[in-house]
Design brief:
By secondary structure, the protein is of the alpha+beta class. It has six helices and eight strands, in the order E-E-H-H-H-E-E-E-H-E-H-E-E-H. The structure holds coenzyme A. Coenzyme A binds next to strand 5, helix 4, strand 6 and helix 5. Keywords: Transferase.
Length: about 190
C-alpha cells in the first residue's frame, strides 16, 4: 500500500528550495506563474486571467489534499521567500504503488535547475516515505525542457501514449516517462 498520510503536511527542503503547502497568501505569486501563456502552453489549463482563478487553484489543491487525491507543493526560493512554482503528485494507484507527477516553474526562473532540484526531493519522498514503486509523467510532445528535466532525474522514455490528454480542448499524445524504485535505489 501507499502511505498517503499528508497530515501534517510533508514540507520538503533542498539546498535552495522549500516545498510547502500553498497558502491563500501565495495567491499573487501563484497568479504570476500560472497567468503566463508560456507556462500554460503544454498544460490542460488556459493562462489565468484573474486573482480569483488563482484562489480557486489554491482551494482545489487543499481539497485534493484532504481527499488524498493529489498533493501539491509550493516551490519557495529560500533566498527570497518567493513562490516560484508548484509541483504535485497524484493519480495514485494504491495496489500498484504508482503515482504521476506534474510541475510548473515561473518563466523568469527557468534554466536554473529549480525543477530538477524540487522534483528530486518529491521523488525521494515518493520512494522512501510513500513506498511508491513507480513514478510516471506524461509530457506533451514538443515540451523538450520537461523531457530534459526528467532525463536528468533518470526517468526512462517508454513511448508515446496516443491521444491521452485533453489539452485546451484537443486530445494530445503523451510521451510516457517513468522511474521505478529499483532504478532509484541503484542511482541514489
Ligand atoms: C519544464 C520546466 C518545469 C523546467 O523548469 P526549469 O526549472 O527550467 O528546469 P531545470 O532548470 O531544472 O532544467 C531544464 C533543462 O532543460 C533544458 N532546456 C530548456 N529549454 C529547452 C528546450 N527548449 N529544449 C531542450 N532542453 C531545454 C535546460 O537547458 C535544462 O537542462 P540543463 O540543466 O542540462 O541545462 C519549465 O520549463 C516550465 O515550467 N515549463 C512550463 C510548464 C511545464 O511544461 N511543465 C511540465 C508539464 S509535463
Amino acid at each position: 500500500m501507499i502511505n498517503k498520510s499528508f497530515v501534517p503536511f510533508p514540507t520538503l527542503e533542498t539546498n535552495r528550495l522549500l516545498l510547502r503547502l500553498v497558502e491563500d497568501s501565495d495567491v499573487e505569486q501563484l497568479y504570476e506563474v500560472l497567468s503566463d501563456a508560456e507556462v500554460a502552453k503544454f498544460d490542460y489549463f488556459h493562462p489565468l486571467t484573474s486573482i480569483e482563478q488563482a484562489l480557486k487553484f489554491i482551494a482545489r489543491f487543499k481539497n485534493e489534499l484532504e481527499e488524498n487525491e493529489e498533493i501539491t507543493w509550493g516551490i519557495i526560493l529560500k533566498e527570497t521567500n518567493q513562490l516560484i512554482g508548484t509541483c504535485n503528485m497524484g493519480s495514485f494507484d494504491d495496489g500498484a504503488r504508482r503515482a504521476e507527477i506534474g510541475y510548473d516553474i515561473a518563466q523568469s526562473k527557468w534554466g536554473k535547475g529549480y525543477a530538477t532540484e524540487a522534483l528530486g526531493a518529491v521523488i525521494e519522498y515518493g520512494f522512501t516515505t510513500m513506498n511508491l514503486n513507480r513514478i510516471e509523467a506524461t509530457i506533451t510532445p514538443g515540451n523538450d525542457a520537461s523531457v530534459k528535466v526528467l532525463k536528468k532525474l533518470n526517468f526512462v522514455h517508454e513511448g508515446i501514449v496516443r491521444e491521452r490528454d485533453l489539452i485546451k480542448g484537443k486530445l494530445e499524445d503523451g510521451i510516457m516517462m517513468s522511474i521505478l524504485k529499483r532504478d532509484y535505489e541503484i542511482i541514489k
